Amino acid sequence: MSSVAVLTQESFNEHRSGLLPEQVGGSSDAVDEDNLPTYKDAFPPLPEKAMSSEGPQEAGNAWTSKIRPLRSSIITQVFHVPLEERKYKDMNQFGEGDQAKVCVDIMQKTGAHLELSMAKDQGLSIMVSGKLDAVMKARKEIVSRLQTQASATVAIPKEHHRFVIGKNGEKLQELELKTATKIQIPRPDDPSNHIKISGTKEGLEKAKHEILLISAEQVENCAVEKVCSVQMFINWVPYLRTVKVNANNCDGHLCVIALGVDVSHAIFSFQKRNATTIAVEVKKSQHKYVIGPKGNTLQEILDRTGVSVEIPPPDSSSETVILRGEPDRLGQALTEVYAKANSYTVSSVSAPSWLHRFIIGKKGQNLAKITQQMPKVHIEFTEGEDKITLEGPTKDVQMVQSQIEAIVTDLVMLSLYYIRMDYAEISVDPKFHRHLIGKGGANINRIKDQHKVSVRIPPDNEKSNLIRIEGDPQGVQEAKKELLELASRMENERTKDMIIEQRFHRAIIGQKGEKIKEIRDKFPEVIINFPDPAQKSDIVQLRGPRTEVEKCTKFMQKMVAEMVENSHSVSVPIFKQFHKNIIGKGGANIKKIREETNTKIDLPAENSNSEMIVITGKKANCEAARNRILAIQKELANIMEVEVSIPSKLHNSLIGSKGRFVRSIMEECGGVHIHFPTEGSGIDAVTIRGPAEEVEKAKKQLLSLAEEKQTKSHTAELRAKPEYHKFLIGKGGGNIRKVRDSTGARIIFPTAEDKDQELITVIGTEEAVAEAQKELEALIKSLDNVVEDFMSVDPKHHRYFVARRGQVLRELAEEYGGVMVSFPRTGSQSEKVTLKGAKDCVEAAKKRMFEIVEDLDAQVTMECVIPQKFHRSIMGPKGARIQQITRDHNVQIKFPEREDLQESNGEIKEPADPAAPKKCDVIVLSGRKERCEAAVEALKALVPVTIEVEVPFELHRYIIGQKGSGIRKMMDEFEVNIQVPAPELQSDIISVTGLATHLDRAKEGLLERVKELQAEQEDRALRSFKLTITVDPKYHPKIIGRKGAIITQIRTEHDVNIQFPEKNDENQDQITITGYEQNAVAARDAIQAIVDELEEMISEDINLDSRVHARVIGARGKGIRKIMDEFKVDVRFPQSGAADPNLVTVTGLPEMVDEAIDHLLNLEEEYMADVVENESKMAYMKPSGTAAASSEEARGPSKGFVVREAPWTTSSEKAPDMSSSEDFPSFGAPVAAARASPWGPKRF
Predict the structure, then answer these.
(1) DSSP string of 835-866, one letter each residue
(2) Where would I find the H helices in 618-721?
(3) How far apart, in whole angstroms, are the C-alpha atoms of residue 853 and residue 847?
(4) CA geometry: angle 24, 30, 35, nearest 5 deg
(5) Across-strand partners of 496?
(6) CA 143 to the chain's CA centroid
(7) What is the C-alpha to C-alpha distance for residues 1040 and 1030, in angstroms, rounded to an integer?
(8) DSSP designation for 1204
(9) Whole-prediction pTM value?
(10) pLDDT for 39-58, tens place per residue?
(11) Is the dihedral of CA 850, 854, 856, 857 positive or negative?
(12) Which terminus of the chain has fewer CB atoms gathered within 10 Å of its CB, N or C?
């Protein structure tokens, strides 16, 4: 191990200060040999080896007493994390990702500096620099967050756990830092003796070793005898101070090793006989100065005088200090106690609390100047108190006190003469204080920053109303005004409850709270609270200033009223077959109605039996949508609408329970729609809508039923199996109509929605009901009489009845009371068919089967020739049209297979008879002759027809639209195909193909579109008016404005397009304006007005010191933008490298330029004071090289440092050359061959 001593100027001066005055002085020409220091005095030798522990140590040599060892406060350590223990192993993200984020977080948290590098083995090397505690903390963080963790347990006796923890947990914290592990010790009430350790493998081993060492030490100490003695005498015994003693002070006992019990008693008796005690009074506040840091001062007094000083405990009010020792030394100890007590003093300076922040200065600058000169003085400012407390050495405190008093005097004088500081106090109820502060101090911080003042709001425990504001007089008054306004607003605050139906809450809040956010932005001072949805409450609470709450209430009431108005609902009954026409192709019709009427329209599902279309929105809009939907239905069918006057008091009885009565009338009369007015409206008119014949029937039934209700109405109920209902009703309602006509009673059967499917209701006069009930009961009774009958059916017709999984038989069973029909097995050639069921049902079913057989015998096959290219159009979407014809005419329709024009060998087939129709064009129909003929006519009506419409060729591309959207929309709307000729044909003819009924509408729509396009062309021609204005290019940026703000405003305001010249254009002064003529002229005038204003502007140059440019410009140009906006001028600073860096150009109106220049010069004067002050500080901190050189010349030539009895004077060696790298080698330089040296043998 090597040691290096460095002789510095400070250590040399310190050495010379220890010499006598006559030793320091001397002639400049010659040096007295006797006065020169010896070599050993100037360069004391380093100790060769440690002193023996057996003998007493020396008081210390010159090295230990004169030169204090210097240690760097910054240390550097390198930690290595192997690849297998790395937590983040992504090699592609080295220097970024989670690992980098963790390192940045560690640096911010600990204050240490981290540098990462990757080793060849992919291990991670981390260099940590910083103060020792920061490095240790960083090391712990690195191990826990960048290295994978392992865990282990170590078992030691439970009673040793407290020694691992140490006093206040210090030992445990030291262990964790030292080993970079986490150590978990079980709680005292936990019987476990296992200590859990988590960390790296290396750290685990270290921690286990340290814990086991602590436990082993305690095991050894258990064998030590504890001797009770009086501690106050033990430190006096010289013997105990010179012999190493291993002692533990626990529970007031002293554990002494290697001393017998007799020796301890002898020491105690000796000191008790010779010691004298005196008591003195010392102020309680000065006790800490007598004790010193960690009791060092008491120990120093004991070491120097041998007197023990006893200080009362801190929690005692006693001021008595006891000195115990030999009588002849008590005087010296007492002197030292008083000296230490009076070496520090506590003083205070009177200063108003509002001046404290000015005394401290910005970021503590003023205070830092004082504390740097007097670092031992502690200065304490207490908020709300008009004094400053000083604590420290007496002389230093007096100097600091005088400086602070001078600062206070200056500040008070400034506030009196220049009125630069002021304060104000306002009284505000403490309950409003937290509202003034705001969330996270937002409100009060904003007021402080805005008005440059200090605001003190008393804490809650003071229960004070006074709020103090300090700072610039204007800022104080503005802040006071704003705070009083806030307080007044809070005093004026009120809470209001609004009753809003819960169904509207979600609509008011909006999706993701968008709508309620708009309301809160509009009324920021009002707090709106909605109830929890689970509470089913309608109360919405508003809280805030009275006026704002009232405004918000009115706004929300208006919003709710609109929602109520928009929630009006109307149900429109539309025949099911017309729903698809209401929807339109691709939903075009329904979408158009929704958009134009601003309503919500819901149609029933396809598989639903409901015919109701529900319209929701404003009442007027709902009515408009309803009328449009009804108009579509009326246009599509022969629909008529009549109104019947029936007293409103009878409406409920006519509608019946859940609409049973009115529904039965609508079903019986071919599905007419009967609309009753809203309940409670008092309107008597009932609307009936449907086919003309059915409407008349429904009208008669309603009027007769109403008449019955007015005269005398009686109701009866009877029950029948649901399968009998259709037979009782009969085909087309024939059976039930006979009963009604003969009795005059009305019979209502249950619908599919009714729960009780067996209940039949009879309504009418008492006699009519009794007679109808009698007839129905007879019919039901006859249906319960089951019989079996037979009939003959030709086997060739059997297949028709059993085909399609017996669909015909199922229909017969449903229609005729559940009659069962059995056909013979296939292949038996038997004609016998069995029918089983109620007698009347069997007879009716038998009759119907004979009719079917007769139809089958009379069936013919007919051909309809339609070109194959039209087949798909005839079928309609998913075959809907052909299915409708099949149902309407009760025929079978079969379409041919598609024609294959080529044989397998690729040759084209030639038709045998060119005049004969192609097979692929022939559609075959089967059924009765008259029905087939009607179906053929219906098929031919579906063949598309083509017409031609003349449209100017230049409009074709507009009709087609972007990506065909325009023409596609027209085809969907009119259900036709529109063919536009190819561009190269230059033709004006557009072909429209579709059903004859649709072509007229399509043609009208197409011609209407042509008119719109021609109008747009004319408008486009008017908008293409161009106008040119000549403007000097230097004004172009001003016309454009910042980020195009000015030119965008002109374009928007006048609806024109303004084009500036490109960089390469010849005419750089030409600006082109395009739009309507009057708009273009107006835009030109607006630009000319800007140019005229710019031409009136002047430019002036001023000299502004370049050192203040940055401060004038401000962060991101904020400062200079504010100046330009305030004075309406343009300020240009010189670019870097300009000939005159101080030249600044100001452009604007003359009077504004003068004001802006004055403002800039004032700022320069203000900022230059700070610049000069900072430069003077830098001059003091870094003196120039010329100054240092001149001081050297003043001292004259140095003769070096001369000593006596140097090693080179006693031998033939010459003095070492200080400029020689061999005699004074540099660290790291190669060492020359060893040779004898006056410095002695080299130890490195």
Answers:
(1) EEEEHHHHHHHHHHHHHHHHHHHT-EEEEEE-
(2) 619-636, 651-655, 660-668, 692-711
(3) 10
(4) 35
(5) 542
(6) 33
(7) 15
(8) B
(9) 0.32
(10) 777 677 765 544 444 444 44
(11) positive
(12) N
